[in-house]
Amino acid sequence: MEKTDYAISMTGICKSFGGVQVLDNIDFNLEKGEIHALVGGNGAGKSTLMKIMTGVYSCDEGSVYVNGKETKIATPNDAKKNGIRMIFQELSLIPTLTVAENIFLNHELVKNMHTDKKEMIRCAQNLLNDLEIEVDVNARIQDLDVGICQLVEIAKALSVDASVLIMDEPTASLTEEETELLFKIMRSLKKKGVSIVYISHRLKEILNIADVISVLKDGHIVITDKKEVFDMQSVVRYMIGEKAVNQFIYKERNVAVSDEILLDVQNLSWEGNKNQISLQVRKGEVVGLIGLLGSGRTETMEVLFGLRRQGNATIYVEGKKVDIKCPSDAIKAGITLIPEDRRRQGAVLQHSLLENIILPNLKTVSVKGRMQHKKSRALSQHCVEEFNVKTDGIDIPVSSLSGGNQQKIVIAKWFKTNPKILLMDEPTAGVDIGAKGEIVRLIREFAESQGGVIFVSSELSEVMAICDRILVLKDGQIIDEIQRKDITEEEVLQNAIQQ
């Protein structure tokens, strides 16, 4: 196929950081009107390749062709001039600005030498209506759910003419309904001739939406082919090898679940919820919470960690009554939370790995109230090694890591507090299959050390792989309880949450 048949053609792309080769002689071609999935493990080079395409990085070697013409893309503005837009995994919206202001940021509409706010609001509303995104254009980003923010990010990218759209983990924060809306938008754009590069760790989605799949591993494209030649197992094999194919199979605990109650919660509720939740977690047990959007999964976790004001719940940890009014109360009681939104709640992205890791571990690295430099560095370095974090060092900002490695830092820092109970809300969102396997292993090891886990995930296959017992939530109450041994297939859980 001639280069003129491609919207984008990248040849011989090489890129190194600090002497580490991230991309090695990459060839990547994107046809016009094609949805091309780019998959690979965290740190495989996916985002780096796309940042070269969009002018965020410059390649050390290689060439980029746009519509068959060799083009120098040295800055993001060069990419925009050539119709290339990227929706980054980390949101680029300004929290204090409105939806309309964010959509037209850096290309504001002007009338009589003044910003035409009325016209921007009108155009933003029309754009959102066309995309079937329901959100108040005058709402501030900081007041919106992260899933809605992701859809606004997409609308922002489409507010100018784009012939190439790059989506980096766009569904990581979306509900099932929002994901279906996104796919509808993508198919509509494809019919209009827009080419889309789709980066995701959710392989089911890729096999659903993509026309072509490229697998990137260790800075090399290992295969590019039509979607029809792949199934989930083959994609995983190309990504990280045979060992990962069967890692999401439930395994009996090496150490049996104890009869001793670790966490006992009675009559838990929160503002706006007329129902109540009562549950128990035994030592060595992983309890799953599943349910549709609005069922109360995240709210339950936030109440238990003191992030959300509760009603008159009674909470016991190891038989001792605890009063949880704020996160410090929960931490003191041995309860920690891996939050759903690592970018807003899980990590301070502009701070270093070291600073993030020691934040909840100040007592561990301090002597007489003074933080010890050597202890801090030793703890941070140990976390990086133990949790297999791919990084150039512990002093770089967390924002420079891939999404999966950011999540490992969030998990690592809380593991080091030696909690009794782990609350994990969508802990594998936006991480690759290899990192998911590591997280599964860590949860199992924690449970076998007689810790207790409450695990929330929209990926029912993960729930089946990890949990010993599963509670089904609806409208802020438990409507069903299922033992893992009684589940023969994922359809059992699908039916349970549809009640």
Structure description:
The protein is an alpha/beta fold and 499 residues long. 44% of the residues are buried. The strands form six sheets. The protein has a six-stranded mixed β-sheet with strand order 6-9-10-3-11-12, sandwiched between helices. The protein has a six-stranded mixed β-sheet with strand order 18-21-22-15-23-24, sandwiched between helices. A four-stranded antiparallel β-sheet has the order 2-1-4-5, covered by helices on one side. The protein is built from 17 helices and 24 strands. 32% of the residues lie in helices and 25% in strands.
Could you outline the blueprint of secondary structure elements for this entry?
Blueprint: E1 6-17, E2 20-31, E3 35-39, H1 46-53, E4 61-66, E5 69-70, H2 76-81, E6 84-87, H3 99-103, E7 110-111, E8 114-115, H4 117-131, H5 146-157, E9 164-168, H6 176-191, E10 195-199, H7 203-209, E11 212-217, E12 220-226, H8 232-240, E13 261-268, E14 277-282, E15 286-290, H9 297-304, E16 314-317, E17 320-322, H10 327-332, E18 335-338, H11 342-346, H12 353-358, E19 366-367, E20 370-371, H13 373-386, H14 403-415, E21 421-425, H15 433-448, E22 452-456, H16 460-466, E23 469-474, E24 477-483, H17 490-497
Parallel strand pairs: 3-10, 3-11, 6-9, 9-10, 15-22, 15-23, 18-21, 21-22
Antiparallel strand pairs: 1-2, 1-4, 4-5, 7-8, 11-12, 13-14, 13-16, 16-17, 19-20, 23-24
Q: For this entry, what is the oligomeric state of its chains?
A: single chain
Mean pLDDT: 87
Shape field: globular
Pairing-aware structural class of the strands and helices? alpha/beta
Sheet of most strands: 6 strands, mixed
**Would you report the number of β strands?**
24
Number of helices: 17
Strand percentage, roughly?
A: 25-35%
Helicity range of the residues?
Answer: 25-40%
- Report the end-to-end length measured between terminal Cα atoms: 51 Å
Q: Which regions contain 5 or more consecutive residues with pLDDT less than 50?
A: none
Placed side by side, the strands forming the largest sheet appear as 6-9-10-3-11-12
Radius of gyration, Cα only, in angstroms?
Answer: 24 Å
